[in-house]
Amino acid sequence: MPEPSDRGQLHIPLGGLSPRVVRRQSRRPRPRGPALAALAGAALAAIGVALASAEPQVEVGVVGHGYDLGGQVLAERGGGVYRGQRGGVLVIARVGGREVAGASAELNGRSVTGRCELVPGGDETCRFTVDGRPLAARDERTVYGWHRRYSDGRTVAIRVIGAHDVPVPFPVGR
Fold it and tell me: Would residue 28 count as lying in a domain?
């Protein structure tokens, strides 16, 4: 006889099976926009950091009858004197076994003067005045020319065209 609490209920043996919930998967793809936007943002940020920290490069050299400074040529006037069309002047002289160069020009709209001493086969030291403010630099010889480090920590790769011992009394890469 059935218990009073079991009245009206049917006991169906499930044979070890238990009820399960079946979820339908949507055929519509999940939106991936936020993930793709985050990935693109991270990639662009990495590119921005690389570009911001990339060292500038400038080509300099005595070619033909002039001194080429990043595509602007100062024409040779004789005696180690070079002059640009916009008034820039460069003088290179030998003083006591050292090559000394002085320059005066307007670069990127700023008035600059510079003086560099080059020890043959060695490094170069330079002093500049940029818009009335002093700046120093040390150039280390490399296979491509010079690696310049300014006193404020900024650097520039100076690729020398032609002769290797070319002084660079201009604050290039600034």
Answer: no
